[in-house]
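Reply to dn_fold:

You asked what the input looked like. This is it:
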Amino acid sequence: DLDQKIYNVCHWHPMNQIHNPPELFILQKR
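and this is what came back:
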């Protein structure tokens, strides 16, 4: 499930926004 994957990525590495994985780009555009 894509939403769960996005949640897992954000929850797994809150500071990882600096690296901006594709999941975080999707989250930011929603």
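The chain has a mean pLDDT of 60.
Hope that clears it up.
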